[in-house]
Amino acid sequence: MSTPVVGVLALQGDFREHLAALASVGAQVRAVRRPSELEGLSGIVIPGGESTTIDKLTRIFELREPLLALLRAGLPAYGSCAGMIMLADRVVDTAPGQQTLGGLDITVRRNAFGRQVDSFEADLDFTGVEGGPVHAVFIRAPWVEKVGAGVAVLARVSSDGQPAVAVRQGNLLATSFHPEITGDLRVHRLFAAMVTDHAEKTQANR
Ligand code: GLN
């Protein structure tokens, strides 16, 4: 099987860091700015940044409809921070007119941690990631307030039932924080494995 290509939506935000992290775990990567660049992808990352801007730009660049179609068809996707918001079915505290792509049966609150802790770092136990806690950097991060029955919570900010900050539902993965900027490649490795699994299964079914 040829190496699956993983796209990173490169309209706004820290897409360069995601491209670098994915390349470091051995993925073949492609920056996506136009619909034709979605062709042949085996997975897509939606980076951190500003979800209202990413939303507007996906519409302006005519990426919204093809992205929706690919997500509905089961394309593996990983969203960090603003990307988590883009993948959420429901968002609290949206900007007027803000839309998401959806797919993840979660309710996310934007800028949830409030002003005094706009940005902070924490070490989190992350289900499915071996080798000790993941050092997580939160930057005006959302949290997950509610999850549907099919959603697995992979990490919380603390163990006492605090809001979820990493979730997975089928081929969709999302984190409130930014593993792309810490040099810890384990979350990208997890996503790359999801992409490879899915690519192998879809090839086998052909
Ligand atoms: N607060 C941003 C938003 O609403 C997300 C911040 C981030 O991606 N670091 O989209």
Give an overview of the whole structure:
The protein is an alpha/beta fold. It has a single domain, classed as 3-Layer(aba) Sandwich (Rossmann fold). The protein contains 5 helices and 12 strands. It is globular. It starts with a strand and ends with a helix. The mean pLDDT is 95. Bound molecules: glutamine. The site of glutamine has 11 residues, from helix 4.
The description of the largest β-sheet is: 7 strands, mixed
CATH architecture: 3-Layer(aba) Sandwich
Task: Say which CATH homologous superfamily is assigned.
Answer: Class I glutamine amidotransferase (GATase) domain
Q: Mind telling me the C-alpha Rg?
A: 16 Å
CA distance, first residue to last residue: 13 Å
How much β-strand is present in the residues? 25-35%
User: Helix and strand string, N-terminal first?
Assistant: EHEEHHEHEEEEEEEEH
Q: Which regions contain 5 or more consecutive residues with pLDDT less than 50?
A: none
What structural class do the secondary elements suggest? alpha/beta
How many strands appear in the DSSP assignment? 12
- Tell me the name of the CATH class: Alpha Beta
